[in-house]
Amino acid sequence: MEYNKLTISELHDLLQAGKLSSLDLTEFFLARIEKIDSSLKACISIFKEEARRQAKKADERIAQGEKNKLLGIPYLCKDNILTKGLKTTAASKMLENYIAPYNATVIEKLNNEGAVLLGKTNLDEFAHGASTENSAFFVTRNPWDLERVPGGSSGGSAAAVSAGLSVFALGSDTGGSIRQPASFCGVSGLKPSYSRVSRYGLISMTSSTDVIGPITKNVEDSALVMNVISGFDQNDLSSCSLEIDDYLKNLNKNLKGLKLGVEYNFIDSLDVKMSDQIKKSLAVFESLGVEIIPISLPYNKYAGSVYYIITPAEISSNLARLDGIRYGFSSDLKVEQSNNNLNDIYLKNRGQSFGEEVKRRVILGTYTLSSGYFDAYYKKAMAVKEKIKREFENIFETVDAVLTPSSPHIAFKVGEQVDDPLKMYLEDIFVTGPSLAGLPAISIPAGFVDNLPIGIQLFSKKFNETIVLNLADQFQKKTDYHQKNPNIN
Amino acid sequence: MEINKSQIEKIAQLARLELSEKEKMKYQEQFKSILGFIDSLQEVDVSDLDVLGLSGDFSNQLRNDVVLDCPEDEKELAINQAKEVENKQIKVKRVL
Fold it and tell me: Which of A266, A253, A259, A251 is nearest to A285 (CA)?
C-alpha cells in the first residue's frame, strides 16, 4: 500500500478501522525517509525511537476509543520549532548541538492530539532565504528535479511532503517561507493570519510577521492541522484570543457570487507559459460561480523594499540573544584561560558560527536602525507598510479574496542565484505583501510548466482563513494538480 | 546610498560580529545594490501618516504578574547547554 499518497482523512479511517497501526505507518515513513532522503536531503534529524514510542502510545489511545483526526498520523517539523529534549538547530552552526529544553506550543498541541513526530526538516539558516541553500548543513533538493531548489525557507518541509516522507509538515512563514516552497514542490501551504497560531517555541526571526502554518498534500489536510494548532496561548500574548472556526466544517460552502480580485499586471509580468497556466485557474473559479474582478495594487511593488528593511532590523535585534554563552556555538576561548574580554568572546562566537546571509541581514538591520538612519529607513518602511495594509483593506471592500501567482517562475537550479542576494530577495514579490498586512494566504498547486509545479496564492481579510481554505478546497475538487506526485522512490 | 568599509566595521562591532577582510569587501559591494533597492521607498509620499509600532488591530493582552515554576528537567536541559557551568550557574567572564 502506498501510504505516502494518502491524506490525513484516508489514513485516519484506516487507523480507526484497525486496518493499520500507527506503529506500522510510522515504520513505513521511517523506511521511506531512509531510502529517499539520502538524495533529497529534506531532513536534519530523524527521531526513530521517539517516533516509535509516540506511535505505540497513539495505538493505545486508538484502542481506547479516541478518535482525534491526527491521532497516530506521522509528521515532520521545520527545525526552527522547539522540540523538548531533541535537537533543534535552525540549520545554523550556532545551534548545531542545541537541545530544546521545552516544546513549542504547536508541538505540545500536536502531542496532545496524538500526532507522531518523525523528525525535523531543513531550512535556510534561521529561516533567512528562499531556496534552502542557506542551510549551514546541506542543500535540500526539489523532488520534481533534484538539480533544482525546493524553495525556502521551509524547503525541507515542502520537499518532504511532496516526496511523501511524512503525511504533513509544519513550516514557518515570515515573507513567503511556506507559500513559495509549497508552489515549487507542488503541495499546499497555508500562512495563517498573523497571531492566529501561537509562536511560543518558534525561534524568532521577524516578530512582526512570523507565523507557523501547515504544509500538506491538499487543502482539507491544512484545515485539519489548523483545527489543532490555532488559538490563544498564555505563553504567547501576541496570539489572538478570537474564537477559532472549525476550518473543516467550513469547507464545501457554495462559492456562487463570491468576488475574486485579480491584478492582471502580476499575471502578465510572467513568461507566457506561466501566465497561460495561471489564467486556466481563473477559468476554474469562474466555472464554480466565482466572479473575477480586475483590481489594482500599486503599492505592492514596495513590499519587497519594506520587507528588507523591517526584517533585517528585527533580525538584528532577535538574534542578539545568540551569544554562545548560555547555549549555542562556543569558540575555543574559555572564560578563565584567555586574556580576551567578554566582547571578544561575543565577536568570535557569532562571527564563527553565523552564515553569510545571517551576517548580511544582521549588519543591514543594525545599519538601518543606527542613529541617523532610523527615520529614513525603518520609520519610512513602517509607514509604507501601513499604506500596503490599507490598500488591501480597500480592496476587500469590493472583493472577498485575491488571487495571484505564488512565485514569478518555476523552481530554479541549485547555485543559480546564490551569489546574488538581491535577486533572491525578489523571489517573494507576490507573497510578501500579505505577510506585511498579516493576512491569511495559501499557495496551492495550479499546474505544471516544463514538468515543474507552479502555484497560485489566494488570500483574504485578516482572520478570514475559512474563505481562503474554502476557495482553495473547491479548486482542488475541480482539478487534479495536487494529486500528482514526483517520480521519486 | 553607499556604505564604506569603516562603516561596515563600526556596524559589525555594534552587532558583535567578527568579519574577515573578504567578508567586509563582499558586503560592501552587495549593500550597494540592496540599499539601492530599498531606497525606492523614498519616492513614496507618506506625509499623511505617522506610524511607528503596532497598527490599529492590536491591543495589549496582559496576564497577572505571577511566578510560575519551571519543571526541573527543563531547568536542567537549559542550564547544561552552557559551555561552563558551576553549581547550576553559568560562568562568564568578569564584566566589571
Answer: A259
Dihedral angle, C-alpha B47, B48, B51, B56, nearest 10 ° = -170
- What length is written for chain B? 96
In chain A, residues with a C-beta closer than 8 Å to the C-beta of B39 are 305
Question: Number of residue pairs across A and B with CB atoms under 8 Å?
Answer: 152
Q: Is residue B16 part of a domain?
A: yes
C-alpha A62/C-alpha A58 separation (Å) is 6
Is omega for the bond preceding A153 within 30 degrees of 0, making it cis? Answer: yes
- Tell me whether residue B68 is in a domain: no
List the domain range (segments joined by +) for residue B31: 5-43
* DSSP secondary structure of A17-52: TTSS-HHHHHHHHHHHHHHHHHHH--EEEE-HHHHH
Task: Give the integer Cα–Cα distance in Å for A246 and A251.
Answer: 9
Q: B83 in a domain, yes or no?
A: no
The count of residues in chain A is 489
- Using the Cβ of A339 and the Cβ atoms of chain B, whether some distance falls under 8 Å is answered with no
Strand partners, A74: A116
Band of the pLDDT at A313, cuts 50, 70, 90?
Answer: very high
Is B2 within 8 Å of chain A by CB?
Answer: no
Provide the domain count of chain B.
1
CB contact under 8 A, B49 and A386: yes
Torsion sign across C-alpha atoms A216, A220, A221, A224: positive
d(CA A448, CA A462): 30
Q: For the whole model, what pTM was predicted?
A: 0.97
| DSSP state string for A317-329 | HHGGG--SSSSS-
What span, in angstroms and rounded, lies between the C-alpha atoms of A448 and A454?
Answer: 6
Q: What is the mean pLDDT of residues A290-301?
A: 97
pLDDT of residue A127: 98
Task: State the cell numbers at B86.
Answer: 558551576
When the candidates are 3.20.20.60, 3.90.1300.10, 3.40.50.10380, 3.40.50.2300, the CATH number that belongs to A3-254 is 3.90.1300.10
* Residue in A69, A78, A217, A385 annotated catalytic: A78
The per-residue pLDDT for range A103-147, each reduced to its tens digit, is: 999 999 999 999 999 999 999 999 999 999 999 999 999 999 999
